[in-house]
Amino acid sequence: MKNITDSFVSLEHWPPARSFEFNTDILATNPINLSVVLGVLIFFGKGVLKDLLDKRKQRILSTIRNSEELRRGAIEQLERAQTRLRKVEMEADEYRMNGYSEIEREKVSLINATCDNLERLENYKNETLYFEQQRTINQVRQQVFQQALQRALGTLNSCLNSKLHFRTISANIGILGSVEEITY
Questions:
Q1: What is the number of alpha carbons within 13 Å of residue 96 lying toward its C-beta?
Q2: Can you tell me which residues the record assigns to a coiled coil (predicted)?
Q3: pTM
Q4: Is residue 25 over pLDDT 80?
Q5: What element of type H or E holds 100?
Q6: What pLDDT was estimated at residue 37?
Q7: Which domain covers residue 96, as residue numbers?
Q8: 75 falls within a domain
Q9: 99 domain-assigned
Q10: 29 Cβ partners below 8 Å, 6+ apart?
Q11: What's the domain count of the chain?
């Protein structure tokens, strides 16, 4: 060990700076270089590394807290949404039941209105048939009466001569005269 430390401390053994050479003795150089680098890193990097790790830890904790808050908020929103869904489903069931009963009431109302309309139409049809029947009967009566009157006039005209015609008129005047005496 003395030779290694002496080689660093004493400059006698070092060759003059004529040329640059690498020391390829791994056992002599690597442990020393590594111990120096590690010592410098530990001494100077300890604070920086601690600050970096503390910042990272704070960011992780902040992220975890934010995630927990978001999770709680999401759970609350989910519960509100589920409550709202149950309420909407109940309202939908109520509307569905009310709708079915409303449809049934409308159906019954429509059937009743249709029956009333059919009954009115039937009455109107019967009245129209009765009116047409009476009108037809009156027309037939009128035609029969006109035909009977024409036959009677034809028969009277063919059977009455002026003498018979004069006697009928006189008899009728006599009847009217007697009727007048009774009324006075």
A1: 6
A2: 64-98
A3: 0.36
A4: no
A5: helix 26-159
A6: 82
A7: 31-154
A8: yes
A9: yes
A10: 23
A11: 1
